[in-house]
Amino acid sequence: MTTLEVHTLEAGRSFLPKKLLFNDTTPANADTVDEFPAHFFHLYHQEKNLDILWDAGIRNDTSAHPPAMQAAFEAFLHPYVPEDAPTGLSRNGVAPESIDYIFCSHAHFDHTGDPEKFPNAKIVYGAGTQAHVRPGYPINPESRYLESLFPRGRTLELTKRDFKPIEGFTPWDAACDFFGDGSLLLIDAPGHMPGHTIAIARVEGGYLLLGGDSCHCEAHLKEYAPGGRMGFGMHKDADTTRDNISKIVKFAKSRGDVRLCLAHVGTYKDWEMVVVKEGEGVRL
User: Which of 121, 177, 209, 214 is deepest in the core (most CB within 10 A)?
Assistant: First the structure.
């Protein structure tokens, strides 16, 4: 049974106002902000000798982003990058040139990094991503997305046909078994934005559920139901987001061998090897 070795690092931080995250903010605290890390994950497929990234964090030259994105940076996001993904990987013995695949959970700035710094990587996006964001800047001067996120000859986008029926991963009924060995299952999970994808990576002791931006706070795993505190200001489709979170919660509760890894939630030690220890399944 093929397993992946997974390590994690942080590539930048940004800020989100509480009013975008919770629907019960008051005028007194609506503009207060929380700082969020941008985690990314290095996956090593030993049998195929592949270096893989799940997300790539924030690029260090944030000034390269389009004017429309700069406006959001100045208004509230205020990103800063003490160490970007290529630097963090190199510091831990992984050359950016060695990365074979980058799976972007979605195309937002804090997940895509700078594809040019990974010249040999195939960049993989979820179904519907390009139809939603392209043409990017500068072809479309109003776009918040860089056209360079989709390098010619290196960009792969999943299609609905790539998702096949699976067993043992209820409540999802379909997934893309990308490497054909069950080590990395990609699941279509829109809601946050078209093309948003989550993954189930098989590791020592169980599975990591790489949730991207399914939600931005641990509290959202309990507050997603109608009438709860969760706000949907960060998501394109509230109902689909709610459904995605409910499936994640159901999956986590049904098993004892799952560790949930969201892009902006929790803390990790530097280059921590992410495993699932016996009896350490997610409890919600």
Answer: 214
- The pTM for the full model equals 0.96
pLDDT, tens digit, 9 for 90 and up, residues 194-223: 999 999 999 989 999 999 999 999 999 999
Q: Which domains does the chain have, with CATH numbers?
A: 5-273 (3.60.15.10)
> What's the pLDDT tens digit per position in 20-62?
999 988 888 877 999 999 999 999 999 999 999 999 999 999 9
Q: What angle do CA 96, 12, 131 make, to 5 degrees?
A: 75
Q: Whose CA is closest to 14, among 30, 48, 37? A: 37
Q: 125 and 159 in contact (C-beta within 8 Å)?
A: no
Q: Please state, in angstroms and rounded to a whole number, the distance separating the CA atoms of residues 280 and 257.
A: 7
Whole-Å CA distances, 216 to 21, 266, 270: 8, 10, 21
In whole angstroms, what is the distance from residue 195 CA to residue 131 CA?
Answer: 9
**What span, in angstroms and rounded, lies between the C-alpha atoms of 22 and 219?**
10
Distances (CA, A) of 25 to 17, 72, 232, 241, 265: 10, 21, 13, 20, 20
φ/ψ of residue 202, rounded to 5: -85, 120
**Token reading at 103:** 């799976």
Omega within 30 of 0 (cis) for the link into 171? yes
